[in-house]
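Researcher: Let's try something more involved. This one mixes different molecule types, so please make sure each is placed in the same coordinate frame as the others.
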Amino acid sequence: MSDPNGGQATSSVLRSGTLWAGVLVAVAGGVGIAGGLQVPDSGALSDPLGPRAFPIGLGAAALVLGALLAISARTEGVAGAADTGRRRTVAVLAGAIVLYVALLIPLGYPLTTVVFLGLLFRYLGERRWWACAAIAVPVTAALYLGFAYGLGVALPTGPLGF
Amino acid sequence: MPDIVGSFGDLLGGFGSALTWQNLLFALLGCILGTMVGVLPGIGPSTTVALLIPVAFTMAPDSTLIMMAGVYLGAMYGGSLTSVLLKVPGEAASAMTAIDGFEMAKQGRAGPALAIAAIGSFVGGTLSVVALTLFAPVIAHYALAFGPVEYFSLMAAALLFSSVLLGGNLLKGLSSIVLGLLVAVIGTDLQTGVPRLTFGSNAMLDGVDIVVLLMGLFGVGEVLWFLAHKEPDSERLALRGRLWPSRSDWRRSWPAIGRSSVIGFLVGVLPGSGSTLGAALGYSIEKRVSKRSDEFGKGAVEGVAAPETANNAATGGALVPMLTLGVPGSGTTAVLLAVFTIYGIQPGPRLMEQHGDVVWVIIASLYISNVILLLLNLPLIRVFVRILDIPVRFLMPLVLAVAAIGAYSVNNNIADVILLFVFGLVGYVLRVVGIPIVPFVLAAVLAPMMEQSLRQAMLISNGSWTPFVTHPISAVFLAAGLFAVGWDIVRSRTKGRRTKPIAEDE
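Model: All components are placed in one shared frame. Result:
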């Protein structure tokens, strides 16, 4: 099969995208079935289908679709997804997000968000620290004031106490 | 049949509410915000509307929905700016505009291209709202006869359509739907009170908040995807020369605008298809019927007029199933539907009957927003172009910070922030493996109503499945959905289809 996008490398990436899609969907299906089987059956006349049928049925459908996707990956030419993105960027962002969530309560929203934004600006290419701070601080303050005082959201304050 | 005069009276009532200075201000705010996000590559209308949801908690329903409708329309207008000047569509529905718009800009005709885009958007958008005004009451009237059987089949057909039209790959489209339905099952079953798919976690008893899900998939997921796949620096063309189109431009554009208004509206009505398909279809049909088809791709003005008209006409079309049947036609209308539920408004066939005041205010606001956008876009094109100067390195982290605070504000709970980022990663992974996100979102939004209808239908039939095929309306819906799937299978086998998923920004 011809590949207008450029040869074997692209094609194998496409295939692996579909293969991983199949694995992902099948795993979700397995989780759906396992979770559905744990649901007690109501057995009530007023509810012939009961609360188990939907998750189990969906889980089974996902399993079948996952298997079909995995099979189709073997013959797939160009209709898959090519991930040629920078995985390192995503990994760093994911790490930053995990840290952000972990520190949100102990350090509070204002402090954590300023640090989170400033470091991300820097990582994404802003070389001047003062520019990182000059944008991170007022934006965080505006968000905090808007949500805490404008919308009445009780945001975690941390050691700053406001 | 619904009373046309009565509908006209309802629309006038809607204008009465929409024309208050507060609501006009919200419409203006929504239009400006929408145009800005349309200009900015990487942030689509569904992302913006999702990020605005926390604001909805503090505002009246009509004001919120007016503002969000303004964002929706504005993004369709704004997308043309970057398409023409950068050849980078601000949102997916403007991708076709970039082909001829950028060529026109290279010839020093960026001004006429943008003016035709704005006027085409206005005409397409307005005509589609006229059609929405005329057809919505009729469809809602007949939909009132729907029982649980018909309703379930309608939603199933809508999801099947979306898997075909948005999936690119049918298996991935169907997988997206099943995953969306599965996520929506998590939590306490409302009919029996038993926990489902919580695996013993008390935090999951309330299920996944649809607001957090939408912000995660559209907001965080889009940011991750954009930063990992950012376009290289593009050639940027200055906005110079005359702004107003020539007489020849007008003569060539009007037929395209007329045809694409109809095409865009009809495509928009189909659940799941959205503005991107409307724009693509408008462009290809115009190329086929044009006497100057050889000029397409080299700066034909019809190549700008057709997709820009069609993508705006599709927004009115997408609101038809949402406002009359409670079935969203696109990612953005799915978010709007979620906003209805925040206000305790149950979407569905009775929406126009029970909350006609809100529905008619939204329809009236669409007319107003189209006028606002025309008035904004023609004189302020040069101002909006300046938005492109905001560096991505600042913009994308800001979206993450807004999403985080928005998710926290839903329940004042850190668990929602965690879920937000989890769904952001899920959204990113789905895109990496090629599973479209919009069918996932449509399924997650429709899942509770779908399951409720299914169980009610089974109760009425004493556990028998036959009513789904013996009730004529239900049978037609299911047959249409299955036909769409069958047609897709046959087509892909016979033609060795090489499509990529329709981008899902709208």
